[in-house]
Every structure is written in structure tokens, then in C-alpha cells.
Amino acid sequence: MKEVLRTIVKHIVDNPEEILINQKEEGQSTILELKVAADDMGKVIGKGGRVAKAIRTVIGAAATKTDKHVSVKIVD
């Protein structure tokens, strides 16, 4: 899932080299913590959180193949 998230986000941001993704496993859940450059934070979140919600939806759909719940947390 990390690489799926990286692929999506690198097409949104201006500084793809500053994308950091930490993966934490907690039982049947996986948390992907996404950190991007401060200048790109607004692009990743989007107006009213629309882009962030879309990213979470796509990752959630892709995660159905893994039988795990995957969530995306955007950290600053």
C-alpha cells in the first residue's frame, strides 16, 4: 500500500522527493502516515479535505485485496 500511496501523491505535489511514508501495523489494521513538504500540504489536503478524502478512498479500495483495514494519516 505504501507504493500505491506514493504513486498517487507524487503526481499531486511539487516536491515528490520530500514524500515520507511510515507504515505502522496494529493487528488487522495498517496506518500509513504521510508527510510532505510544507508547501505541498494544501495540495494533498485540498479544499475542504476533498483530495485527502479521495486519497483515503482509493487506498481503502486497494486494501480490500489484503483483508486489512488501511488508513491514511496526514502528518505535519
TrEMBL record:
Keyword line: Cell shape, Cell wall biogenesis/degradation, Chaperone, Cytoplasm, RNA-binding
**Molecular function terms from GO:** RNA binding
Q: Where in the cell is it found?
A: Cytoplasm
What InterPro entries does the entry give?
Answer: KH_dom-like_a/b, KH_sf_prok-type, KhpA
Q: Does the keyword Cell inner membrane apply?
A: no
GO cellular component annotations of the record: cytoplasm
Q: What SUPFAM superfamilies does the annotation carry?
A: Prokaryotic type KH domain (KH-domain type II)
Looking up Pfam families in the UniProt record yields: KH_KhpA-B
RNA-binding keyword on record: yes
What CDD domains does this protein's entry cite?
KH-II_YlqC-like
What domain of life does the native source organism fall in? Bacteria
Major location, coarse class? cytoplasm
Which GO biological process entries does UniProt record here? cell wall organization; peptidoglycan biosynthetic process; regulation of cell shape
Q: Which PANTHER family match?
A: RNA-BINDING PROTEIN KHPA, UPF0109 PROTEIN SCO5592
Q: According to its UniProt entry, what is the function of this protein?
A: A probable RNA chaperone. Forms a complex with KhpB which binds to cellular RNA and controls its expression. Plays a role in peptidoglycan (PG) homeostasis and cell length regulation.
Similarity-based family: Belongs to the KhpA RNA-binding protein family.
Assembly and oligomerization: Forms a complex with KhpB.
This chain belongs to the protein called: RNA-binding protein KhpA
